[in-house]
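Our consortium's second objective concerns turning raw sequence data into structural hypotheses that experimental partners can test. To show how far this objective has progressed, the report includes one record in full. It was chosen at random from the queue rather than selected for favorable results. The single chain below, 190 residues long, was entered without modification.
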Amino acid sequence: MTTYGTIPAGTPVSSNLGYISFATERIRSGLGTGRPWKEMVQLRSLSVPASFAEAFQRIKTNAAYFRMNYVIIILFILFLSLLWHPISLIVFVAAMAAWLFLYFLRDGPVVILGRSIDDRWVISVLAVVTIVLLFLTDVTVNILVSLLIGVVVVLAHSVVRITEDLFVDGEDGARLRLRDAASSSFSTQQ
């Protein structure tokens, strides 16, 4: 049978090695969608806010801009606190699989019953499920301390990181200052 002039269909990924390489590529591209780590720690972009209102505005802006990076920081601190508790670590790794597929690696929004679910709801539900599962493994103190440390680290960074140099790509391709991008998804999500 000849197939001249036809476009060959993609080869199905049938082997385990093909699936692993596909998953590895998805993880690399998915984790690459967060903001660059160098952008988070630029020394010239760190300063103490002049007022409480400015500090609160910085927290809101940086939380929206560095959302994925902040989640990774908190989860990494939680992971470090569980290294000496193998059962809890297994539960945490299982929860990380859910995080990878439902938050870090997905291309579009999560859709349930035809409704698009906001990222903040996905993060909240995944965080609650992860914490509840870990509480069931009797590491309450470790979880609370590591979450407290993670939140303090994230809040400290979001307060001292200036927001004037943060830009998002607008719908027309122009780069907009994050504070001025009132129509961006950061400020209109509910």
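The partners drew two points from this record. Residues 170-176, 179-190 have pLDDT under 50 and may be disordered. Strands lie at 110-112, 115-117, 167-169, 175-177. Both points have been shared with the crystallography group to help prioritize constructs.
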